[in-house]
Amino acid sequence: MTAGVFAEWQPRYAEHGIATFPVRDKRPAVRHYLKIGMRASEQFASKFPREAAFGLACRKNRITVLDVDSPDERLLADALDEFGPTPFIVRSGSGNHQAWYRHNGERRRVRPDHRPIDILGDGFVVAPPSIGSKGIYRIISGSLDDLASLPTMQRTPAIETALPELIETGRRNQSLWRECMAAARQCGNMAELIEVAVQRNTSIFEEPLPDQEVLGIVASAWAKELSGDNWFGRGNRVVLDAVEIDGLLHDDPDAFVLLTILRRHHWRRQFVIANAMAETMPRGGWARKRFAAARRRLTEIGAIQEIRPATRQSGPAVYQFKGGQL
Q: pTM of the predicted model, to two decimals?
C-alpha cells in the first residue's frame, strides 16, 4: 500500500522537531490536536497512512505563520517588508501565501487591520506538501532545514494588540453564532456565510465544533438576516411597539417623539426629563408648555414612571421606563 502524504512527511517534520497530525477538508482529523507531541504524531502516521493533508499546532511547535490570503505577490512583498523577511515561504493550493517565522508570543489575529492577512501564532496551520481540494501546498522558498533558524516577526501594532486565548469548549456555540450574525451582512448568500463560519470554527476554538453544529448555527444566523432581525453590527437601536406607533403616534405625536428620544439616550438606566430639554427638541426646540404636556402624557399612559419627585434638595424628578426596564 502506497503511503499518503502525511505518513511520508510526518517523520521528515519530526526530524526538525515538528509534531504534525492528519487533516481532512482543512479540519484536523484528530482531537486535542493543539497539544499533540512527537509520540502521538508518530502513532497518527501509522493510524492514518493514507491521508493526503496534515497540519501542525503553531504555538506548540514554536511557529508563527503570516497567512497572506491572496495570490497577489505584491501583497506578499509588502507584508514581508512590514513583518520582516523569512527564508520559508509556502504557496497554498489556492495560490495564496504563507510566511513562516519563529514564534515570539504572537496570538491568532484574523485580519487585524482589514487586509487579507492573518497572524497565526495560535491554532493550527495546514503544512506543505499537503494536498487540498484546490491543489498542493508547495514550499516555494527555503526547505525544512530552515525551520530550526527561522527569524521572529518584526513587532507591529497588529502583533502588539493580542487577542485573548482561544475560546474554550463551553462557549463555542454562542461565540460562533455571534460571529456569524456579525458577518452575515457582508455575505451575499448562505454559502459565503458557511465559508466564514468554517474559517472561524477552526481559528478561534481550542476544539472546533462538529460540521453539523456549524451548519445549524449558520442556518439560524442566515434566517435572522433574511427576516430582517439581524441587528449585529448596525449600532444601537430604538425599539417601538406596533401599538405605540399605531396609537401614540396618531393620538399624540409630541409624546411619541419624546418617548423615542428618551429611549434613544436612556434605555436601561434611570434618567431626568428637565425642562431645559425642551430647547433641544426637533425643529428649533419646543415651548415649555408643549414639552411638559408631552412628558405628562407619557406618565399618564405608563410609558415612563416617576421614581423620585423633584425637590429643592435632590433636584429634578427621576424616571425609569415602564416596568422598571433599566
A: 0.54
